[in-house]
């Protein structure tokens, strides 16, 4: 029986398509397979449960691809542990389910990642978010994304956190899908607004790339977004995910 209390972490956004499920997978896989932490994931994005379905596809892909099968065998032999579990759940009871899982786990769980629904109208979503220790929110230089994100982040910070009935320690915005061709002043304007609102913005910026929008292909020799293997280190550097991971670790202070 485990007595250690893990960190509860969510990549959360009130706008779809900004990368919360992708980052849940990317960071969980690097933590579990490459950095040695014991990870669990709860997929509360009902009813699609996209991460549960992704894991099934990832396992099938590895078995059908000889190069990836050899990499996976070498990986799991070296780390001597299984793939991290992904448990389907609903937002209104996900905290209880996670605590039960942690208490019943024969090994100490270091971090639990939560993939939560992207709408404030979902039953239980505010309770679930209030139960997180750290929330990371991807943002893009889009007016609609920024407006909805900043309003909701202010709600979390100024209402939920200040009431004291929460586990939240930090809420961290970070730029995703940054295109080097876009106007730099645009980001400067948004950065100033975020600072003026008293919100926390990570220094790391994730560069845009097609790899974020696709999983491993049948003849691929490397993986990026996968639930059973960590992202290839060269691909991580190309989009600056390696710098993000370093800053992420400093923030959560595990």
Automatic annotation (TrEMBL):
Pfam families per UniProt: CbiA
Record InterPro entries: CobQ/CobB/MinD/ParA_Nub-bd_dom, DNA_Partitioning_ATPase, P-loop_NTPase
Domain CobQ/CobB/MinD/ParA nucleotide binding: 9-214
Protein name: ParA family protein
């Amino acid at each position: 029986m485990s007595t250690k209390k893990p960190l509860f972490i969510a990549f959360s956004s009130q706008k779809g398509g900004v990368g919360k499920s992708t980052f849940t997978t990317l960071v969980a896989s690097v933590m579990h397979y490459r950095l040695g932490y014991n990870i669990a994931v709860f997929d509360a994005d009902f009813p699609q449960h996209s991460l549960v379905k992704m894991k099934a596809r990832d396992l099938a892909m590895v078995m059908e691809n000889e190069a990836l099968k050899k990499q996976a065998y070498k990986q799991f032999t070296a780390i001597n542990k299984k793939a991290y579990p992904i448990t389907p759940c609903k937002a209104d009871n996900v905290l209880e389910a996670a605590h039960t899982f942690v208490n019943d786990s024969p090994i100490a769980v270091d971090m639990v990642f939560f993939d939560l629904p992207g709408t404030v109208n979902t039953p239980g979503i505010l309770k679930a978010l209030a139960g997180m220790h750290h929330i990371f929110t991807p943002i893009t230089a889009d007016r609609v994304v920024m407006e909805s994100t900043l309003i909701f982040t202010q709600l979390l910070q100024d209402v939920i956190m200040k009431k004291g009935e929460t586990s939240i320690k930090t809420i961290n915005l970070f730029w995703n899908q940054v295109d080097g061709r876009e106007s730099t002043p645009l980001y400067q304007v948004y950065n100033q607004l975020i600072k003026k609102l008293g919100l926390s913005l990570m220094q790391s910026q994730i560069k845009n790339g097609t790899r974020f929008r696709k999983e491993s292909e049948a003849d691929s020799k490397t993986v990026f977004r996968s639930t059973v293997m960590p992202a290839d280190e060269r691909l991580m550097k190309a989009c600056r995910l390696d710098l993000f991971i370093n800053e992420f670790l400093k923030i959560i202070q595990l």
